[in-house]
Amino acid sequence: MTLVDCGPKTPEALAALRDGLEQAGFALGQIERLLITHGHLDHFGLAATVAAESGAVVCAHRADLPKLTGDRAFVEPMRALIREAGFPSGVAEALLEALRRYRGQLDPITPSCLLNDGDLLPLADGALEVLHTPGHAQGHICLRDGGALISGDLLLEEISPNPLVELDGNGHRIRTLPALLRSLRRIAALEPTITYPGHGEPIPEPAWRVRELLLHHEARKDRLAQMLSGRAWTLREIAAAWFPDLSPANLLLGLSEVLGHLDLIEEAGQLAIEHRDGVLHYALEPPPRAST
Ligand SMILES: [Zn+2]
Ligand SMILES: [Zn+2]
User: Is residue 292 domain-resident?
Assistant: First the structure.
């Protein structure tokens, strides 16, 4: 039996997993293969527990290995990012402390098999196709069986998936929102008839939801471009204008949202970035003058 994602490492999630499996006529010990859509703790926190009890093979995309294995290489680049956003150093420490607390809800795991885009995973009655869909997480995958798509956190009905800040192996930030939008367009082109998201109920005929998300981000990008046309803003100032009550735990979500839209403007060749005393200031690049 194959399980996709397993929930965070909490007693409640483990009990819910056992209950759900039982209702489907299975036991946790029967899981042979655990597929992880991406390396966020609400999707893989229990993976080590499941593997220990069942002997299941654990599979994930290689791009999420740092998150799955608990690599701490992101700490220094994250401090730099918060500093360049215009926050005092205490803010970075509060954020890192909040992230440390979350680590209680996961056991790090090294997957025993690494997945690639296009892999076909045999099932008793068919196969699951692996689609690499980066954006919300660099190693995010969706799984397709005909018109049915298991969409992880790429496509959710109630909330707009966050383009969470991610760093490459050299500590450079990856442009996550442009990648997320490309992944959304890719799955829409496959015209799934139903998606099974990582949170919430199945979404039948999900094309409308993809369109809605694309329009949402387009509108936010335009709103940000409008702000930046007046003067240069720091990341901290934009985040405060968009999300006035951000707690340290939610700061990363807010900053990711803003950075994602700055990336869209930058990809369109319209972003001017200036360093002032170690803090980055963003403005709209003046449009090129028409030649006379
Ligand atoms: Zn996630
Ligand atoms: Zn999630």
Answer: no
Q: What number is the average pLDDT over the span 213-219?
A: 96
Instruction: Give how far Cα 210 sits from Cα of 144, 165, 200, Å.
Output: 17, 21, 16
Provide the residue range defining the domain that includes 216: 71-107+116-284
Are the CB atoms for 263 and 175 separated by under 8 Å? yes
Q: How far is the CA of 43 from the centre of ligand 1 (A)?
A: 7
Q: What is the pLDDT of residues 139-156, one digit of tens each?
A: 999 999 999 999 999 999
Cα 28 from Cα 56, distance rounded (Å): 10
Do 54 and 199 fall within a single domain?
Answer: no
Q: Determine the distance separating the centroid of ligand 1 and the alpha carbon of 38, expressed in angstroms.
A: 7
> 50: CA distance to ligand 2 center in Å?
18
- Judgement on whether residues 158 and 260 belong to the same structural domain of the protein: yes
pLDDT above 90 for 171: no
What is the CA(232)–ligand 2 centre distance, in A?
A: 34
pTM (global) more than 0.90: yes
Structural domains of the chain, count: 2
Q: How far is the CA of 194 from the centre of ligand 1 (A)?
A: 20
Q: Do the domain assignments include residue 289?
A: no
